[in-house]
C-alpha cells in the first residue's frame, strides 16, 4: 500500500542533492512527479511556440516589431514562470540553491529587454529539467512499480462464499482466493490448491516456481496457473514486498561519500558564482550578456547529478536482480572486496541431503536395497528418509507398506515389511542386533568420510549401505571462478561440519582455504583474522550466521525471501539463492564507481569551460543554455547504462520460460 510520507522523504532528499530547476514539493503523492513533468513540458511547448512565433513575425512582418516583441514577452514569461516559482520557494525557506542562479540569469535577460534570449534560455533549461526528472527519479518509479504489484482489493472467503474486500481490511488468519493471472496482495501460505507462481518481482528470477499446500507465497508475486486459497500471514509493511520497498527507500535516501562532499561545499558555490558574475560585469563594462552566460553555464546539474543518477541506476539494476542494498555506502564498499568467506551449509550447498551412493551386498540389486530402505523410512521425517523417498520417486520404485514402525533416537528405525523385520541405521546399532556386516564393502576412506552412512538389514541379513551427502549448490563453482575474475584474491569456506566433508566440498568448488568444525565464535574469529589483510564479504543464510555476517566488512544474506532474520542481519540481502549475484554485485559496484567518475569529469569540464568562455565573452547565453542541456543529458544517459548490467543472468531465464523449458 502507498506510504506517501516515506516516499516524499526520498524525493525531498533528492531535491536537496540537485536543486536545479524545481524538484521541490513535486512528489506529495504517487504519480505527481509525472504530472509535474507533463506540466513543465506544457509550459515549454507553449512558451516555446510564442518565442518561435516572435522570430517568424519579425521575419514575415519586419514593420510590425511591436507584435513580435509582445509574442517574445509572452513566451519568456510563460517559460520563466516555473523557474521563478521554485526560486521564490527556496528563498522563502531561507535556502539558496542553484535555482537562484538560473532565475538571476533569466531576470537579467528580461531586465535588458532581451526577451527572446530569456525565452530560449528558459526553454532549454526546462527541457533539461524534464529529462532529469524522468531519468534520475529512479526512486519514484521503483516505488510506483512496487505499489502497482499489489492489488487494492481481494476475494475474502467468508462462510464458503467469495466477498470482495479492501486489501487494507485484511487481517492475519483471513482466507482469500487468488485466481490465475492475479497478483498476491499479501503474504500467506497456501491452504487449498496448487499453482505455479512468478516470483521475479521479489527474487529477480524469471523461472516460475511450483507451489503446493503449505508453501509460502508473497505479496506482489503473480499466480500463473491454478485457483488457490491462501491463509494470510503478513499484511502491509510486514510483507516481504513491504520490506523490499523499505530497503529501496533506505538505499535511495542515503548518500554516497562523493555527494556528501558536494553537499558540504554547496553553500559556497552560489556566492562564488555571483562574485565571478559581478567581476565579469565590472571588467566587461557592464555587458549583461556575459553575466547571463556565466550564470547559465555555472548551473551545475551535470556535476551534482553525476553521482546520484549513477547510484539510482545501480540500485535499480541490483533490485531487478533480487539484490537489495540497504545503504549506498555498501554499494561502494563492494568494489573494494578482496576476500569472500562462505558458510557451507545452506550457502555453498543446498542444506538438504541427497543419496550419494548405494552399496548393496553381494547378490543384492541396488534397486532392491533402495526399495527396502525407502519403504522402511516412508513414515519418517528425518533428512535421510526424505532423501530416500525422493530418490525412490525419481527411480519410480514402488514401496512396501510397513507395520510396527518405530524410531530409535540417534540410532535408526525399524519396522515389519511383509512380516519380516527390517532395520536401517548406524553400524553399531545393527551390530548390537547381531547383524553381520562383514560381507559388505568397506567405505573408501576419502569419500566415505565425507558421507553420512546408514546400513540396511532385512530378516537379520545385511543388504548393504547407503551414503548421503549435502548437495553442492548449482553455479557454486562458477561463482568462485567469477569472483576471482572480478578481482577477489581470497575465497574461503567456514563450516561446523566434519573436516572430511568440508574438504570434499572445497575440492569440488576449487576453494583452497577451509575452516571446518567451527563454532559460531570460531567463524567470527576467522573473519577478523582475514580482515587484517583484506576487505571481507561474508556470505551466509542469515539465520545461524548473523554473528559472522556482522563481523565482516560486508554481510551478504542468501535466500532472504520471506526471512526477517536474513534481511535484518546483513548489509545486503539476496532474494534468490543464485550465487552468481555476488560477483555481479562486485562488478556492478566497480562499474558504478567508473560511471560516477566519468560523470563528474563531464560536469566539471562543461562548467569550468562554460564559465571561462563566458567571462571572456566567447559564449552567448543561448549557447550556454544549450550546453547545459547537453551536459545534463550526457550524464543521465551515461548513468542509465548501469541499468543493463546483469542481463546475461535474466535473459536466459526469460528465454527458458518463453520456450517452455
TL;DR of this structure?
The chain is α+β, with helices and mostly antiparallel strands. The chain is built from 25 helices and 22 strands.
Describe this protein's structure:
The chain has 661 residues and is of the alpha+beta class. Among the domains are: 149-246, Calcium-transporting ATPase, cytoplasmic transduction domain A (Distorted Sandwich); 319-345 and 475-586, 3-Layer(aba) Sandwich (Rossmann fold); 350-472, Calcium-transporting ATPase, cytoplasmic domain N. Helix content is 53%, strand content 18%. Helix 3 (65-92) packs across helix 5. It is elongated and about 120 Å long. The two termini are 35 Å apart. 47% of the residues are buried.
Low-confidence stretches: 1-34, 653-661
Dominant shape: elongated
Total strands: the figure is 22
Strand content: 15-25%
CATH topology of the domain at 319-345 and 475-586: Rossmann fold
Helices and strands, with pairings:
Layout: H1 4-17, H2 32-60, H3 65-92, H4 99-111, H5 115-136, H6 138-149, E1 153-158, E2 161-166, E3 175-178, E4 187-192, E5 195-198, H7 200-203, E6 209-211, E7 216-217, E8 222-223, E9 228-234, H8 240-253, H9 257-283, H10 288-297, H11 301-320, E10 323-325, H12 328-334, E11 339-343, H13 344-348, E12 349-360, H14 366-376, H15 383-394, E13 402-408, E14 412-417, E15 420-425, H16 427-432, H17 445-448, E16 452-458, E17 461-472, H18 476-485, E18 490-494, H19 499-509, E19 513-515, H20 520-531, E20 536-540, H21 546-551, E21 554-557, H22 564-569, E22 572-574, H23 581-615, H24 621-640, H25 647-659
Parallel strand pairs: 11-18, 11-20, 18-19, 20-21, 21-22
Antiparallel strand pairs: 1-2, 1-3, 3-9, 4-7, 4-9, 5-6, 5-8, 10-22, 12-17, 13-14, 14-15, 15-16, 16-17
Amino acid at each position: 500500500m502507498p506510504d506517501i510520507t516515506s516516499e516524499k522523504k526520498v524525493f525531498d532528499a533528492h531535491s536537496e542533492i540537485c536543486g536545479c530547476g524545481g524538484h521541490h514539493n513535486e512528489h506529495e503523492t504517487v504519480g505527481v512527479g509525472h504530472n509535474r513533468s507533463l506540466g513543465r513540458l506544457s509550459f515549454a511547448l507553449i512558451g516555446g511556440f510564442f518565442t518561435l512565433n516572435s522570430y517568424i513575425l519579425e521575419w514575415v512582418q519586419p514593420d510590425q516589431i511591436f507584435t513580435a516583441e509582445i509574442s517574445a514577452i509572452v513566451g519568456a514569461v510563460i517559460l520563466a514562470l516555473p523557474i521563478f516559482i521554485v526560486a521564490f520557494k527556496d528563498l522563502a525557506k531561507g535556502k539558496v540553491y542553484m535555482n537562484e542562479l538560473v532565475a538571476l540569469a533569466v531576470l537579467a535577460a528580461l531586465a535588458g529587454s532581451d526577451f527572446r534570449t530569456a525565452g530560449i534560455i528558459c526553454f532549454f533549461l526546462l527541457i533539461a529539467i524534464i529529462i532529469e526528472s524522468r531519468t534520475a527519479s529512479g526512486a519514484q518509479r521503483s516505488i510506483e512499480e512496487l505499489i502497482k504489484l499489489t492489488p487494492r482489493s481481494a476475494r475474502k472467503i467468508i462462510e464458503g462464499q467469495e466477498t470482495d474486500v479492501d486489501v487494507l481490511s485484511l487481517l492475519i488468519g483471513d482466507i482469500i482466493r487468488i485466481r490465475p493471472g492475479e497478483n498476491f496482495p499479501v503474504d500467506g501460505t497456501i491452504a487449498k490448491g496448487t499453482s505455479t507462481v512468478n516470483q521475479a518481482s521479489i527474487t529477480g528470477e524469471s523461472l516460475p516456481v511450483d507451489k503446493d499446500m503449505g508453501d509460502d507465497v508473497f505479496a506482489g508475486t503473480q499466480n500463473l496457473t491454478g485457483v488457490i486459497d491462501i491463509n494470510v500471514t503478513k499484511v502491509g509493511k510486514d510483507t516481504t514486498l513491504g520490506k523490499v520497498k523499505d530497503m529501496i527507500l533506505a538505499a535511495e535516501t542515503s548518500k554516497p561519500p562523493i555527494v556528501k562532499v558536494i553537499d558540504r561545499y554547496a553553500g559556497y558555490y552560489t556566492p562564488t558564482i555571483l562574485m565571478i558574475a559581478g567581476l565579469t560585469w565590472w571588467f566587461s563594462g557592464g555587458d549583461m550578456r556575459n553575466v547571463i552566460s556565466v550564470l547559465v553555464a555555472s548551473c551545475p546539474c551535470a556535476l551534482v547529478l553525476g553521482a546520484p543518477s549513477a547510484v539510482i541506476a545501480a540500485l535499480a539494476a541490483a533490485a531487478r536482480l533480487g539484490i537489495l542494498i540497504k545503504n549506498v555506502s555498501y554499494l561502494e564498499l563492494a568494489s573494494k572486496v578482496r576476500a569472500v568467506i562462505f558458510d557451507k551449509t545452506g550457502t555453498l550447498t543446498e542444506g538438504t541431503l541427497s543419496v550419494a551412493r548405494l552399496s548393496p551386498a553381494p547378490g543384492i540389486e541396488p534397486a532392491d536395497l533402495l526399495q527396502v530402505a525407502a519403504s522402511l523410512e516412508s513414515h519418517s521425517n528425518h533428512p535421510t528418509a526424505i532423501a530416500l523417498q525422493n530418490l525412490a520417486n525419481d527411480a519410480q520404485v514402488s514401496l512396501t507398506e510397513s507395520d510396527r514402525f518405530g524410531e530409535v533416537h540417534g540410532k535408526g528405525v525399524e519396522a515389519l515389511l511383509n512380516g519380516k523385520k527390517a532395520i536401517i541405521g548406524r553400524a553399531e546399532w545393527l551390530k548390537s542386533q547381531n547383524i553381520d556386516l562383514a560381507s559388505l564393502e568397506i567405505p573408501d576412506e576419502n569419500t566415505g568420510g565425507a558421507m553420512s552412512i546408514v546400513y540396511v538389514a532385512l530378516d537379520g541379513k545385511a543388504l548393504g549401505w547407503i551414503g548421503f551427502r549435502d548437495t553442492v549448490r548449482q553455479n557454486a563453482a562458477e561463482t568462485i571462478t567469477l569472483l576471482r575474475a572480478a578481482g577477489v584474491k581470497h575465497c574461503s569456506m567456514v563450516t561446523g561440519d566434519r573436516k572430511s566433508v568440508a574438504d570434499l566440498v572445497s575440492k569440488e568448488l576449487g576453494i583452497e582455504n577451509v575452516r571446518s568444525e567451527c563454532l559460531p565464535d570460531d567463524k567470527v574469529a576467522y573473519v577478523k583474522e582475514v580482515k587484517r589483510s583484506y576487505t571481507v564479504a561474508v556470505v551466509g543464510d542469515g539465520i545461524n550466521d548473523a554473528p559472522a555476517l556482522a563481523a565482516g566488512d560486508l554481510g551478504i544474506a542468501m535466500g532472504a525471501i520471506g526471512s526477517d532474520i536474513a534481511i535484518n542481519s546483513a548489509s545486503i540481502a539476496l532474494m534468490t539463492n543464485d550465487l552468481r549475484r555476488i560477483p555481479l554485485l562486485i562488478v556492478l559496484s566497480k562499474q558504478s564507481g567508473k560511471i560516477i567518475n566519468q560523470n563528474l569529469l563531464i560536469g566539471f569540464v562543461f562548467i569550468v569551460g562554460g564559465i571561462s568562455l563566458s567571462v571572456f565573452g566567447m559564449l552567448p547565453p543561448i549557447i550556454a543554455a544549450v550546453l547545459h542541456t547537453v551536459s545534463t543529458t550526457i550524464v543521465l544517459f551515461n548513468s542509465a547504462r548501469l541499468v543493463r548490467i546483469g542481463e546475461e543472468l535474466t535473459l536466459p531465464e526469460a528465454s527458458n520460460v518463453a520456450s517452455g523449458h
